Amino acid sequence: NAGVMQNPRHLVRRRGQEARLRCSPMKGHSHVYWYRQLPEEGLKFMVYLQKENIIDESGMPKERFSAEFPKEGPSILRIQQVVRGDSAAYFCASSPRGSASGANVLTFGAGSRLTVL
Amino acid sequence: SQQGEEDPQALSIQEGENATMNCSYKTSINNLQWYRQNSGRGLVHLILIRSNEREKHSGRLRVTLDTSKKSSSLLITASRAADTASYFCATDAIQGAQKLVFGQGTRLTINP
């Protein structure tokens, strides 16, 4: 019973390139969350998705960033035209339900570390 | 902002001592959770306390919640070197957002 799987674990991109980060939630989990963490800082919420729906994207920059969670396959966080400030660890978490249905305990992946040169 | 704030930002103690970390938040919540993060790894859920609970225990962990002061504390008793990690509180607001909002974390170092 694999946990939350994220790949790649490490990604290096040059300024202006695109970064695609993938997240497969735990089996049976239909809610996915993406967070960003800068060194020595806490996690900043980016986006919350259910299958084929974006529920809350209030933490995601309006430009260059997008996320999806298709009916089949992993959730994708896409960053276009990356800049040095995008360098961070991006964590995906999943849960079997949203908080509206009760206590929302998240299971986290190991993270994807993006370095923009 | 609903974001929690942990205090202290960093804590260094000797093995065997107790470690206490505090968290404050701003809005009314359904529950509050504590997570642990080892260096370079993802977060791991430790314990959840609901808004109608005042204290909860799990092994060497003790969590308190004071909703009137909008604060929580995490106590780790008889600390071990393996407890060295960052600890984050996360809040789940009553209204609106269906997401956990994390604080900045407390970096705990246990010296052998």
Write a compact overview of the structure shown.
Chain A has 117 residues and is mainly beta. Chain A has strands at residues 5-7, 10-13, 19-24, 31-37, 43-50, 53-56, 65-68, 75-79, 88-95, 107-108, 112-116.
- Largest sheet descriptor of chain B: 6 strands, mixed
Query: What is the overall shape of chain A?
Result: globular
Low-confidence stretches of chain B: none
Characterize the quaternary organization of these chains. heterodimer
Calculate Rg of chain A over CA atoms.
14 Å
What integer is the average pLDDT of chain A? 92
The percent range for strand residues of chain B is: over 45%
DSSP E strands of chain A, number: 11
Residue share in helix of chain A: under 10%
Number of strands of chain B: 11
Q: Report the end-to-end length of chain A measured between terminal Cα atoms.
A: 36 Å
Q: With helices defined by DSSP (H or I, 4 residues minimum), what is the helix count of chain B?
A: 0
Estimate the global geometry of chain B from the Cα principal axes.
Answer: globular
List the helices and strands of chain A in order.
EEEEEEEEEEE
Mean pLDDT over the full residue set of chain B: 91
Q: What order do the SSEs of chain B take from the amino end to the carboxyl end, as H and E?
A: EEEEEEEEEEE
